[in-house]
Amino acid sequence: MQPLLLLMAFILASKAQAGTIIGGHEVKPHSRPYMAYLHRITTSGRKTCGGFLVRKDFVLTAAHCSGSSITVTLGAHDVGQHEGTQQVIPVKKIIPHPNYHPKFNDIMLLKLQRKAKLTAAVSLLRLPRREEQVNPGMVCSVAGWGRLDLYTTTARLHEVELEIQRNEQCISLYRSHYNTTTQICVGNPEKKQSTFLGDSGGPLVCDNTAQGIVAFGKKNGKLPRVETRISSFLPWIKRTMRRF
């Protein structure tokens, strides 16, 4: 991507529609078979988000990706096409974390109306163990569907690599809106690689394990950004899935 376009994307991000993977690349089709595309109905219209399959009948995403109704598409690479690999499943129950706040506990489970059929294009993503940690300097990835810059849209799945940052960097940028226990600080400020709101709910994948969920960041695209730390919510995730 040309540096000028990257610069414009970051300066004018607040004027762009909810977007996107910045500075990433298109993934090999169906190489991220855990990815879920969320089509949701909200009071302000039709919106999209990302998510990922953690059980045959459960998708994990961000709580701010809620809506009056949600339909999940699994097995997709190009969401603008009716690919034979796709499974479109309505959501039976939307379960945000009971203590969700726009900046905290941004995690949600979606109980699917029926179980997904696991195939080469649809599979589960491993959740972390409670004791697993991500450390500054680790390079992880986030995938999503959305704008590639201010003017370029795509229906194909793209991915970007993001470096884990020290907590102090997010404390400095977000102050009281950053919690070191339940959130992860991601994105090297020296690199123009990032996610934006349209990628919300997608997984931060480190060593084939979902360690975070895309949560929020500055509207102008300034790095680093904040992810929900999945390991802090494992008891709630497991307890909720057992209930259903």
CATH architect. name of the largest domain: Beta Barrel
* Strand content range: 25-35%
User: What is the CATH topology assignment of the largest domain?
Assistant: Thrombin, subunit H
Helices and strands: which structural class? mainly beta
> How many individual helices?
3
Main CATH class of the largest domain: Mainly Beta
Contiguous uncertain segments of 5+ residues: 1-20
Note the run of SSEs as H and E.
Answer: HEEEEEEEEEEHEEEEEH
As an assembly, this protein is single chain
Q: Describe the global form.
A: globular
Give structural notes.
The chain is mainly β and 244 residues long. The chain is 11% helix and 34% strand. The protein has a seven-stranded antiparallel sheet. A six-stranded antiparallel barrel has the order 3-4-5-8-7-6. The longest helix is centred in the last third of the chain and has 10 residues.
Compact description:
With 244 residues, this protein is mostly beta strands. Helix content is 11%, strand content 34%. The protein contains 3 helices and 15 strands.
